[in-house]
């Protein structure tokens, strides 16, 4: 104990110095990279490259670095070293052409605590393969691809119309009700019945889901890979998650026992197509989409432009591999930046402008685009993609069939910048739904 007499501030300061020294040593060791590893900006100890990144829009910061270091580069977000894929070509090469090598899911403490790595989103290896097969099979059993699921969506659209009509053309907040309508589809599949929009349990479920999504998208939760549980947001998010599970379980066992509308100049053309094909006398059905290329193009362009999962979910390599001439070891944390795909200037004529023509040929026919990846791509593509596309078409066409949408009186400038989280959400805003 003679050593401590030279430290007048006592044991605590000594322990802090020792801890800091250890962290610096670990940081230096972690910084060692294999030969031909993707290049990147020089990181600082402990914080990595956080000082060079805009944490409010991390996707755009990473795309800025790609202009200097190339479409495949490395970066350190706190102590976590990651390889970033930033272009359609790089993301497609990894997730589609080399899909087997990029299906891993890295360990992130907060998500591990939530899922115990047993679900379909955050699991890995054979467990993930088996879970994904089960989920897709279960969705089919619940009606995906059948008339029954279309009927559920059509029914929910009618409830949505009733709520919009109740405001009699006066301004109201749309985000909550649209989120509730989409959530009700899953609830009706899982529980056999939908919730009323003012149901107390339903309101708590949606509130907790939204809060968890917001907290899970904060950079510190991703940066503190080895000590995420030390961040205050971790405890808050974990607590919210536990309460959410309890609510879902209560609802499940009781059953066993007994989108912002983008302001676009072309919306008149969508309504013309709806009026010509569907009219006002019946509800839209899935088969209508094949005969409505312009409406389909507008929906796809909204998804491209909205870009609701800008950073994708992180991947990891399952084996040593090479991408674009760079060596990437097994187990490397990989960030496929979807913004870089959906705004890639080599793939889209006007990448930073809303333009439905991106999905139309010279004759006005709908065309698919390989760079359209709002649901990710490859073997980890969203398992609910088909359901989401069906909901988007039926909700969108039903609402535009019934209403003209406009800003509240006196509002000339709508703020369409998103709120950042694990997914990008619209900021609170009010819209007038005027019956047609």
Would you mind describing this structure in some detail?
The protein is α+β, with helices and mostly antiparallel strands and 436 residues long. Helix content is 46%, strand content 9%. The protein is built from 14 helices and 11 strands. The strands form 4 sheets. It has a 4-stranded mixed β-sheet. The model is unreliable at 225-230 and 253-265 (pLDDT under 50).
Kindly state the mean pLDDT as a whole number? Answer: 81
Fraction of residues in H or I helices: 40-55%
Structural class: alpha+beta
Spans of at least 5 consecutive residues whose pLDDT stays below 50 are 225-230, 253-265
Strand % is: 5-15%
Question: What spatial form do the alpha-carbon principal axes imply?
Answer: globular
Task: Give the C-alpha Rg.
Answer: 24 Å
How many strands appear in the DSSP assignment?
A: 11
Question: Main β-sheet: number of strands, strand sense, barrel status?
Answer: 4 strands, mixed
Gap from first CA to last CA: 84 Å
**Major sheet: arrangement of strands:** 1-2-7-4
Count the helices. How many? 14
H and E string? HHEEHHHHEHHHHHHEEEEHHEEEE
Short description:
With 436 residues, the protein is of the alpha+beta class.
Write the layout of secondary structure elements.
Layout lengths: L10 H21 L26 H12 L2 E6 L2 E6 L2 H10 L11 H7 L9 H17 L5 H20 L5 E2 L1 H17 L8 H17 L2 H5 L8 H26 L9 H11 L15 H14 L8 E2 L4 E3 L2 E3 L4 E4 L1 H5 L42 H18 E4 L11 E2 L5 E2 L3 E6 L1
Parallel strand pairs: 2-7
Antiparallel strand pairs: 1-2, 3-11, 4-7, 5-6, 8-11, 9-10
Helix pairs in contact: 6-7, 6-14, 8-10
